Prior knowledge:
Elements: H1 15-28, E1 34-38, H2 44-59, E2 65-68, E3 100-104, H3 117-121, E4 124-129, E5 140-143, H4 150-160, H5 167-180, H6 191-201, H7 207-215, H8 220-231, E6 234-236, E7 245-250, H9 252-257, H10 269-272, E8 280-288, E9 291-298, H11 304-310, E10 314-316, E11 319-325, H12 328-339
Parallel strand pairs: 1-2, 1-3, 3-4, 4-5, 7-8
Antiparallel strand pairs: 6-7, 8-9, 9-11, 10-11
Helix pairs in contact: 2-4, 2-5, 4-5, 5-6, 5-7
Manganese (II) ion binds near residues 45, 105, 130 and 150.
Amino acid sequence: MTELATSRPGGETTDSDWSAAVAAIRELAPTGRVLLICHVNPDGDALGSMLGFALGLRRLGVTRLQATFPGAFEVPEPFVELPGVDLLVPESEVWPDPDLVITFDAAASSRLGDLAGRLARARATVVLDHHASNAGFGGINLVDPQAAATSVVAEELLARLDVPLDPQIAECLYVALATDTGSFKFDMTTPRVHEMAARLIATGLRPGEISRRTFDTRPFGAVKLFAEVLARAELEPAAAAGHGLVWTYVTQDDLARHGQRAYVMDALIDPVRTVAEADVAVLIKETGDRTWAVSLRSKGAVDVSAVAVALGGGGHRLAAGYTGHGTPAEVVAGVRELVEQHLLPQG
Ligand code: 5GP
Ligand code: MN
């Protein structure tokens, strides 16, 4: 199997990386156990790229197939109708020794939680990702920091495996692409992104219905929760060298009072980052005792990926996250100090 693991960790993805991935899948997938893993607390790109690829493997005739993510087995409501969700298994049911492991949208093996150990046991591992901070933790690494979403990488690999797009695969890849481009609004929305969207929509997708279900639907209780969390937001105009910072937090108690599940917190960063007076937006989401999943966003003045990396996390230049500890005020104090050190050149 050594010839299947030729990828240079951390280097640019080359033709030989793509060939190695195709060879590993063609050799191991027809008869072996194939395990697909996406990152903890999965978003639309993690689940969409993984399930779209899973459906493609199923089309190739692969039958011993599991798709999973670490932690509590709760599929966020916006994704419960994604094609291929029937392939998802909880962490507790994952094969201990799969033959082939393929990961999606995970910038580091730490994002795979306790499932990271499955990589060492597999005969081959393929990492599909688009985070610049990805150092290449797989045997074969398909990491394209220019790709707007991991589903861009997944679509390319499916094409190289001669799997045609069908409406189910396309819907998964579309949800992923729409998620990571902010519904085709962010700067990375290149002609290549729209060309891919056109290919996907041409299979018969209904973008209006998909985006309403995925992005624009939430329970009434979540709307009331959003109101409360936004009402306690604080604006610090002098922070980030005068570019401004806005922050707020949401606790497990808030969720319980409004009868909401944890996934609803993920969409809360979007109204927070609309604040005109702040370049940096910080949402502090309680996940355990004095433990918080922290979302960071910038409009261009600050490299929040560098801030997150300094705090043990990662992400993209303008969208990143990490795990914080202490009170919300203590968490934001750490961020406030670091944003001053990671200003981006303006102009
Ligand atoms: P979000 O704030 O939407 O959870 O995440 C924004 C970006 O930061 C995503 O690309 C996500 O993968 C990354 N990210 C969020 N939290 C973490 C973390 O704890 N560690 C790492 N390495 N990346 C994170
Ligand atoms: Mn992504």
